Structures are given as structure tokens and as C-alpha cells.
Amino acid sequence: MPVTAQQVEFIPLAIYTVIAVGLIGVLLAAAYFLGSGHDSADKHIPYESGVAPTGAARHTSQVPFYLIAIFFIVFDVEGSFILTWATAWDLLGIQGLVHITVFIVILMLGLVWLWMKGGLEWGPSATRTRGRS
């Protein structure tokens, strides 16, 4: 059966796959045969930069940490959309400008709403303190 030109194109891929799988097998076999195989108690303790662990690993994070993370994700996604629009602004024309303007205005309205609801106040606030007394 003759080999077609399309099948010839897959020969380098097949050779690369065989070499990669073979190399992985050789490395796993070397690790198995050359490794010590001993299990000790030191292998099961947490290790962080050479510092001996103290205390419990479970602790609560403050709310500002989560707020900063969420703000970063929201504005990072917004930035990627604006960057994508900016790379093709000449192709999108006035319709693209209107769409990105509406997008930015909606995000800004969400930020203003969050600000008015007190979502940006991370520490003790005078209004919150007055509300409790």
C-alpha cells in the first residue's frame, strides 16, 4: 500500500511522540532504580523555605484580601477587553467605540454602587460605629 503525502506529514510527529514517551520511561525507571526507596518521618512534615513549621496552618484571612483579589480579577478582565478593543479599534469604527464606552460605563456604575454601599471601606468606619451604638 503506497504512503500518501498526508501520512508522510505525520511521521515527524510520530517520531517525536515515541522519543518523548521513551525519555519519560527512561527517567521514571532511573528514578525507581537509583532512588533510595527509604521513607522517613522527615518526608511527611511541611517545609517552607527552610523554616521549621510552627502553629496551625489554618487561619482566617481578612476581608480586604478577598476584596483586593476580586477587584484585581474584575479590572484585569476589563483591561483585557479594552486592550483587545484597542488592537482592532480602526476595524470596529464608531460601533466599536459605542460598545466599549457602554462596557466601561456599566463597570463604572458598578464601582459607584459598590462605593455607595460601603464595599470599599475595609477598616472600621465612623458610620458603622455610629450604627451600632
UniProtKB/TrEMBL annotation:
It is found in: Cell membrane; Membrane. GO terms for molecular function: oxidoreductase activity. Keywords: Cell membrane, Membrane, NAD, Oxidoreductase, Quinone, Translocase, Transmembrane, Transmembrane helix, Transport, Ubiquinone. It is a multi-pass membrane protein. It catalyses: a quinone + NADH + 5 H(+)(in) = a quinol + NAD(+) + 4 H(+)(out). It is an enzyme of class 7 (translocase). It holds the Pfam family Oxidored_q4. Its EC number is 7.1.1.-. The chain crosses the membrane at residues 13-34, 65-86, 92-115. Its main location: membrane. InterPro entries: NAD(P)H_OxRDtase_bac/plastid, NADH_UbQ/plastoQ_OxRdtase_su3. NDH-1 is composed of 14 different subunits. Subunits NuoA, H, J, K, L, M, N constitute the membrane sector of the complex. Belongs to the complex I subunit 3 family. This is NADH-quinone oxidoreductase subunit A. The gene is ndhC.
